[in-house]
Q: What sequence folds into this?
């Protein structure tokens, strides 16, 4: 399932020569410099391969002979490696690097024994004559040693194009060496089903998962004895299949990949079975930029508008094809959410769906979230990370519950119910901060609709007669009466009673109503505010007409409706005022 | 006379761990044939018989869920119980030693419901007193009254399976009328060949998976 789909993605990408997907036997590595040699193995120059991005220079990604997995101990790579291996010296000097240089030399001799290539011969001559002690002085003649010392190096033969590791005869020699040295047991590969495949003993680590170790984590690993059953401490995955799925996943997770998003502590990657424009814009659906404040550049602005149009279309149940004409809705789409866990990667969720269905699910999510905005600056399509921050203490993303974040992303993408903890968490935040914000109201609304099958309107519904909603509205009016009568009060009704009036209306509301009688009385004495007092009393009367008594307690579901009623009514009170002004 | 049986098993949680992702567990979409065999063996098994799973019906939709559990990272080394038994000493295994803890996440299944269709064959360990009718009767009697040798489970011991004998028709699956490819799935482990796992290409048709017989060409694709 997951590995099969990643394997399929690799095969799709390798078929496209422009994809930059490295073929089997190679890997993409960060290379900074090339040592230029003549045929005699003399160093003729140091070529800077780094690419400039802004003010900084970054190593170039390059397909090189596959990297060995180096956790501890000395293992050299073929024809490329860190300066400590290639030159036997780094910033800290030559100490302890002699075995590394020896390993590098030995591998060259082993692979190069049957390879007749002037480039490889040059490298062998170069390392044979190399004195690690002179590294700093010799390299410094061409390039500052400090910059070269910590980086990965490759070789180039003077006067010929390309790098030595890329010369066809060298590559042939490398793949012959790999097959020869492969004494792995033969198994039936559980990704491709092929029989008699050499078993992959170590899978390449997966890099780029947020919060994971920089050296990468493993999806397939058996790193403790309790994880082994039937004496098998390796999964039956063929070497080529293991290479394919790890390479594909690493490419999806690479820096600057358009096919990943991070939410809370997890990283979601997505890809389609066949090439599909949805791969390009799905990340934007997670974090839609508001149209007004989108970047000034014309292209960015156009994209933002397009995403906005697309979101509007799918929210109202329209077809995405009308906005993105080249979208094939029947293509299968895969979503994989990963989170690091003790040098391993755990799979938070995995979903495969058609593009059309996926977009419909996202549309339904935004439709259920839709609620009247508190301020015009509030985003019309709330990004998931902003919603989640509203559930965390101090609004900090590191305080977001990982379980909640995973459940929310899953609910958005797969249409499953929102996590059960969502409502209590949001109510808890409201109680703690005395604030029913746009995002919180939206979350409650979506939760009540999807998980509780309640009907919740987008904006104030004055014909609605269920008690929690009315109580919420009533509270908003009472608060307004206080604000008008006692402007700038230190602690308002909301600060003191928002939580308790939603949980125990029977105990609290009679106090509030008594207070309000005082507030309206005060307003009535002021000739300028007499009308206000009349207005408030009329509204209170209208709302209270619809029910007889105050319930002693309300369930969290009813409390949610209370908050929605409060939010709607409050928004409505202020909307009217601005109209009158 | 047919020696087939139909057993319905269900439970709140299930995890048919994929062998490649068995540390951070990820479940297969449906019950594997060897897991079905394990459930039948929990109810009735003797060396004289070998269970063969014919069909697995998936009645309810496949729903995944995610949990984290604290588990241990080591097993009791094999020599320890051996010497403990030999020397008649008590056996210690300090489970709660701090370094022995591992938090593991599991992507598992919720609310599963299956019908296992299976039959058994007599093995060469069957003596003159063994015959098919006898074992079939024993199984049916035990399954009907809910008896088992050890609690049948849905992939992990923590997820007990409820079961009942199906005597009438198998209920219609949620996936009736659909074909779903499930990829390569563990068929069983070949204990005669040094515990070699066998895989087969699983396809769910109308909610039914028909595992091929082991050692068939289909298994060694």
A:
């Amino acid at each position: 399932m997951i590995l099969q789909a990643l394997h399929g993605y690799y095969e799709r990408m390798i078929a496209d020569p422009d994809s930059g997907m490295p073929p089997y036997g190679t890997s993409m590595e960060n290379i900074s410099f090339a040592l230029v040699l003549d045929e005699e193995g003399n160093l003729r120059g140091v070529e800077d391969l780094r690419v400039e991005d802004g003010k900084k220079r970054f190593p170039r990604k390059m397909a090189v002979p596959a990297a060995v997995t180096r956790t501890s101990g000395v293992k050299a790579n073929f024809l490329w490696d860190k300066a400590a291996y290639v030159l036997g010296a780094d910033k800290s000097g030559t100490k302890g690097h002699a075995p590394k240089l020896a390993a590098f030399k030995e591998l060259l001799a082993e692979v190069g024994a049957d390879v007749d290539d002037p480039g490889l011969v040059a490298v062998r001559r170069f390392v044979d004559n190399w004195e690690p002690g002179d590294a700093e002085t010799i390299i410094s003649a061409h390039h500052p040693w400090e910059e070269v010392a910590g980086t990965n190096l490759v070789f180039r033969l003077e006067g010929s194009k390309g790098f030595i590791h890329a010369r066809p005869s060298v590559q042939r020699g490398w793949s012959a060496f790999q097959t020869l040295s492969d004494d792995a047991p033969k198994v039936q590969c559980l990704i491709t089903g092929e029989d008699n495949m050499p078993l992959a003993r170590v899978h390449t680590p997966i890099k780029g998962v947020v919060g994971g170790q920089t050296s990468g984590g493993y999806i397939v690993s058996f790193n403790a004895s309790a994880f082994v059953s039937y004496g098998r401490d390796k999964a039956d995955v063929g070497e080529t299949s293991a290479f394919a799925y790890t390479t594909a996943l690493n490419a999806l997770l690479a820096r600057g990949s358009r096919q990943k998003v991070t939410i809370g502590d997890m990283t979601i990657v997505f890809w389609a079975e066949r090439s599909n424009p949805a791969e390009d814009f799905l990340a934007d659906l997670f974090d839609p930029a508001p149209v007004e404040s989108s970047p000034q550049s014309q292209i960015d602005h156009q994209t933002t508008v397009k995403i906005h149009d697309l979101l509007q279309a799918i929210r109202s149940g329209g077809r995405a094809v009308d906005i993105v004409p080249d979208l094939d809705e029947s293509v299968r789409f895969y979503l994989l959410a990963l989170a690091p866990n003790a040098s391993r990667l755990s799979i938070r969720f995995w979903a495969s769906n058609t593009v059309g269905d996926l977009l419909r699910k996202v549309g339904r999510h935004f439709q259920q979230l839709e609620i009247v905005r508190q301020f015009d600056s509030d985003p019309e399509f709330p990004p998931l990370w902003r919603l989640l921050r509203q559930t965390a203490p101090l609004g900090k993303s590191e305080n977001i519950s990982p379980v909640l974040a995973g459940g929310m992303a899953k609910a958005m993408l797969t249409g499953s119910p929102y996590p059960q903890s969502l409502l209590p968490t949001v109510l808890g935040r409201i109680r703690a901060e005395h604030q029913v914000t746009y995002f919180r109201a939206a979350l409650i609304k979506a939760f009540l609709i999807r998980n509780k099958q309640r009907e919740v309107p987008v904006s104030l519904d004055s014909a609605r007669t269920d008690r929690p909603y009315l109580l919420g509205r009533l509270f908003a009016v009472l608060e307004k009466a206080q604000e008008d009568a006692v402007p700038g009060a230190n602690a308002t009704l909301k600060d003191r009673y928002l939580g308790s009036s939603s949980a125990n209306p029977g105990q609290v509301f009679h106090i509030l109503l008594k207070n309000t009688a005082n507030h309206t009385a005060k307003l009535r004495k002021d000739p300028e505010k007499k009308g206000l007092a009349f207005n408030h009393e009329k509204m209170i009367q209208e709302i209270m007409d619809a029910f007889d008594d105050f319930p002693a307690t309300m369930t969290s579901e009813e409390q949610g409706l209370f908050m929605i009623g409060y939010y709607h009514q409050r928004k409505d009170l202020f909307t009217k005022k601005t109209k009158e002004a | 006379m047919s020696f087939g049986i139909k057993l319905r098993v269900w439970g709140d949680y299930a995890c048919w761990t994929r062998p490649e992702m068995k540390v951070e567990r990820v479940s297969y979409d449906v019950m594997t044939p060897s897991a079905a065999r394990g459930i039948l063996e929990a109810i009735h098994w003797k060396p004289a018989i070998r269970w063969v799973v014919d069909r697995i019906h998936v009645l309810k939709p496949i729903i995944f869920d995610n949990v984290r559990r604290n588990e241990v990272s080591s097993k009791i080394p094999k020599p320890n119980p051996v010497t403990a038994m030999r020397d008649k000493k008590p056996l210690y295994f300090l489970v709660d030693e701090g370094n022995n803890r591992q938090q593991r996440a599991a992507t598992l299944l919720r609310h599963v419901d299956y019908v296992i269709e299976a039959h058994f064959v007599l093995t060469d360990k069957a003596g003159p007193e063994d015959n098919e009718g006898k074992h079939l009767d024993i199984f049916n009697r035990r399954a009907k009254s809910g008896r088992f040798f050890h609690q049948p489970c849905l992939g992990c011991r923590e997820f007990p399976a409820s079961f009942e004998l199906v005597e009438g028709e198998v209920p219609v699956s949620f996936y009736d009328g659909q074909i779903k490819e499930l990829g390569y799935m563990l068929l069983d482990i070949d204990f005669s060949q040094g515990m070699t796992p066998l895989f087969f290409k699983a396809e769910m048709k109308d909610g039914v998976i028909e595992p091929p017989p082991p050692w068939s060409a289909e298994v060694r694709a």
Notes: Residues 267 and 338 of chain A are 5 Å apart (CA to CA).
